[in-house]
Amino acid sequence: MQLSKTEEQVMQYLWKLKKGFMKDILGEFPEPKPATTTVATLLKRMHDKGFVNYKLFGKSREYYPVVKKSDYFSKHVNGLIKNFFNNSASQFASFFTKKTDLSVSELEELKKIIDSQIKKQQ
Fold first, then answer.
1. How many Cβ atoms are within 10 Å of 67's Cβ, its own excluded?
2. How many C-beta atoms surround the C-beta of residue 11 within 10 A?
3. pLDDT, tens digit, for every residue of 21-66?
4. CB-hemisphere CA count at 13 Å for 95?
5. pLDDT at 69
6. How much is the pLDDT for 99?
7. 51, 65 Cβ separation under 8 angstroms
């Protein structure tokens, strides 16, 4: 299941907040803020998709993410690799390192991460 761009924006705020009432979520939006009903509709759709849940406090709902940010991001990256790079992580890495203007220090940090992962898997 996938989120729309606006649902993803709300999800980003919830990941940041960890949990929040409607007023908390609305407070994260830049001006001009969307209508409360718009955000309520988005949260309902996200709840129906299984991305968020809530606890009732009287008539107020405290929303919290059900899906971890890292899990959501991982799924998207894997889909990107599958759909655009023939399911080849090395093609993706080649594209990423050549086309994103990474500095030498950023490339060295990536190399350390890769070397560390190789050691873990050996």
1. 18
2. 20
3. 999 999 999 999 999 999 999 999 999 999 999 999 999 999 999 9
4. 10
5. 93
6. 83
7. yes
Count how many Cα atoms sit within 13 Å of the Cα of residue 90 in the half-sphere of its side chain. 0
In this predicted model, what pLDDT tens digit does every residue of 91-120 receive, in sequence order? 888 888 888 888 889 888 988 988 888 989
Would you say 6 and 44 are in contact if contact means Cβ atoms under 8 Å apart? no
Q: Cis (ω within 30 of 0) for the bond into 32?
A: yes
Beta strands of 1-122 (E only): which ranges? 52-57, 60-65
CB 46 within 8 A of CB 10: yes
Query: Which residue pairs from 87-95 have beta carbons closer than 8 angstroms and sit at least 24 positions apart in sequence?
Result: none
Judge contact between 80 and 92, C-beta under 8 A: yes
Which residue, 75, 28, 31, is CA-closest to 42?
28
